[in-house]
């Protein structure tokens, strides 16, 4: 993907991996309901900030990208959701919508794939889940291709609105009150 900063994305993946391992450990130790409330709170506050138009104007440096990658890894390891932190970071930035989308896809594809062996090493992955995980590559790949075909960078405002609605829906559906 020509839009992706390959060196920067590779560095972010490397920063995320140790935090994924730590997050998996926390997942195995912590109260799941407490973790869910924490993730919901962070996502909700960030969504409010994004919808209100808050953006960071500076170009994020290596330390900022490392922190975002670490937070992404930790949240991903402890909840199984690698996307929210990175997606929120990308949407609040100054990158074009096309570059943000490309970065998100590459980062999430690589880290999601690397999450599996880390989970297996910590005993958080059952043998029956492995074939199901590989089977899920099909709809993931299909969804990526459909999204690519439908994606139009000229419609950035609509893209952001749909992204915000998806995040809001995920927040609502993730509330522990539905258990």
Brief overview, please?
The chain has seven helices and no strands. The model has no long low-confidence stretch (mean pLDDT 87).
Describe the structure.
- The chain has seven helices and no strands.
- With 179 residues, the chain is mainly α.
- It starts with 5 loop residues before the first helix and ends in a 5-residue tail after the last helix.
Topology (elements, then pairings):
Blueprint: H1 6-29, H2 32-51, H3 62-79, H4 83-92, H5 97-121, H6 129-150, H7 156-174
Helix pairs in contact: 1-3, 1-5, 2-4, 2-7, 3-4, 4-5
Outline, from the CA principal axes?
globular
Report the average pLDDT across residues: 87
Helix run count: 7
| Oligomer state of the chains in this structure | single chain
The major beta sheet can be summarized as: none
Structural class: mainly alpha
The first-to-last residue Cα distance is: 40 Å
Helix amount: over 70%
Radius of gyration equals 16 Å
Task: Write the element-wise H/E pattern from the N-terminal end onward.
Answer: HHHHHHH
Please provide the count of β strands: 0
User: Percent of residues in beta strands?
Assistant: under 5%
Report the uncertain regions.
Answer: none
